[in-house]
Specification:
The chain is built from 6 helices and 5 strands. By secondary structure, the protein is α+β, with helices and mostly antiparallel strands. The longest helix has 28 residues.
Length: 216
């Protein structure tokens, strides 16, 4: 009988076969000059790759090794660079090198897998920080070469998981009495998500510097 590890390997192999097929599909439509179809095929390829990565991340745990989770987290931290710190104005910020997934599509687990360890490491040994009257800001930065039709409505972006992790370290909680939520979009050299925690009285200053669409 197959054990869980063997069954998971079979699932990984199946996903890998699917990934190769999607790669070939993207190449086929690109080679005939159909760029719109190539773009759609590339997105399907990216989605398949994300699913494969998530599956392989769980694979070591099926060996029963108690170090599996911690060892995988070390690999994630070394390959997905999340920038955390404070701006010159003293605003807390997190830069995630990806757009947040859409509700009902993609996986918030991917973001959580590297954001939580990064936040934990950043605040290790530091005094607690608690913003008590602030604005929690999500700035969704789209690659300027991305078609406008591929940009996501703010209502369709999953932010709850990121908010919970940020609140754990810099807010007493995330209820409306403590912080307001603001979302905006901007163009840049690549897709990414910036998260800021700004005192409410300084929010107009943030808007002036970062709030306009098209600003870097």
């Amino acid at each position: 009988m197959k054990n869980d590890f063997s069954e998971m390997l079979d699932r990984v192999k199946s996903k890998l076969v699917n990934l190769i097929k999607r790669t070939e599909d993207a190449r086929t439509v690109y080679d005939i000059g159909d760029l719109p179809s190539a773009y759609d095929a590339a997105l399907r390829l990216e989605q398949s790759a994300e699913k494969l990565v998530l599956m392989t991340r769980s694979l070591p745990a099926f060996t029963g090794n108690p170090r599996a989770v911690s060892d995988v987290n070390v690999i994630i931290a070394g390959t997905v660079i999340t920038e955390i710190g404070f701006t010159p104005q003293g605003w807390f910020y997190v830069t995630i090198p990806a757009l947040l997934p859409k509700k009902g599509g993609g996986s918030a687990d991917y973001i959580r897998s590297f954001l939580f360890p990064a936040m934990r490491e950043f605040f290790m040994g530091k005094a607690p920080i608690r913003y008590r009257d602030c604005v929690l800001i999500y700035r969704h930065i789209y690659d300027r070469d991305r078609p406008v039709r591929r940009r996501r409505d703010h209502d369709n972006i999953e932010i709850n998981m990121v908010t919970d992790i940020v609140a754990m370290y810099v807010l007493p909680d995330d209820n409306p009495d403590v912080c307001s939520l603001y979302q905006t979009s901007a163009e840049g050299d690549k897709d990414m998500t910036e998260v800021y925690v700004v005192p409410r009285r300084e929010f107009p200053e943030w808007l002036k510097e970062k709030g306009e669409m098209g600003a870097k």
